[in-house]
Specification:
Trna Endonuclease, Chain: A, domain 1; extended; 8 helices; 19% strand; alpha+beta; 4-stranded mixed beta sheet; 44% helix
């Protein structure tokens, strides 16, 4: 829904600029060389002179922007409602209920979870960040990560059987490439998300880079909770594993 969200954001940006434009009823009638415009006041139509046409144009533009904003929000609601009801596992179960003998003769329309996960790993590769590792920590899966917090996060993915890759390469719509900390898969929804952990937000320079990176994601159409998840910590607020587990259960299971 990246394009839809961008259109909603654009409509809301327009409406913010138009917030002081008064709501008026604009009437029209055809004439020889185009149209004549009127403003309705106290049940009567007031003729709009050519020199005042810009104000009428602003009123009609705002009315249009309000209408299209309403349509876009309704479209997003309908899509989100459909996605909540859509259950791809019901299709998968049709194949899984078959006997092993019959499975040997059938090519499923939708791959099983095991097949999908295997294909997902083939499409997503880790270890793409070329920046040297200064310190390394070994995960339960036997992979090296850059921080103790990233090890904790990776081990939680492993605990909940969340397929993941560490430091994949992600090319954004702008053509810019970034390396999120993790790419993860919600198997039930067959939805790929990215996970960024920011571990030094109490440091001013690090915090500035963090905000810049978060803005880059948002400008590329990434929605928190739908496309990307963030976790943070500082010296005053260390990593909260209970919060991490809750986020994993809410978004990845």
């Amino acid at each position: 829904m990246g394009q839809l969200d961008r259109l909603i954001a654009l409509a809301e940006k327009r409406l913010k600029k138009e917030k002081n434009i008064e709501k008026r009823v604009v009437c029209t009638s055809p004439r020889k060389n185009g149209f004549q415009y009127y403003l309705r006041e106290k049940g009567k139509r007031k003729y709009v002179k050519t020199k005042d046409l810009d104000s009428v144009r602003s009123i009609v533009q705002k009315s249009y922007d309000e209408s299209v904003h309403h349509v876009l929000l309704n479209q997003r609601y309908q899509i989100e409602r459909f996605l909540k009801l859509y259950d791809i596992t019901a299709i998968v179960r049709t194949f899984e209920k078959m006997s092993e003998a019959r499975k040997q003769l059938v090519e499923p329309l939708v791959p099983t979870d095991e097949q999908y996960i295997e294909e997902w790993y083939d499409r997503h590769h880790g270890g793409q960040n070329t920046f040297p590792m200064q310190n390394t920590y070994m995960t339960a899966r036997g992979e090296k990560v850059r921080s103790k917090s990233e090890k904790i996060i990776a081990d939680l993915f492993d605990k909940y059987k969340i397929p993941y890759r560490y430091e994949p390469m992600l090319e954004l719509e702008s053509g810019q490439s970034v390396c999120p900390d993790f790419v993860v898969l919600n198997v039930r929804r067959r939805k790929t998300l990215y996970w960024e952990h920011f571990g030094l937000v109490s440091d001013d320079e690090y915090a500035k880079r963090t905000l810049k990176k978060m803005n880059i994601y948002e400008e590329s159409g990434f929605i928190i909770g739908r496309d990307i998840l963030f976790s943070m910590e500082s010296e005053e607020a260390p990593l909260n594993t209970k919060m991490l587990e809750r986020k994993i259960k809410d978004y990845l299971l």
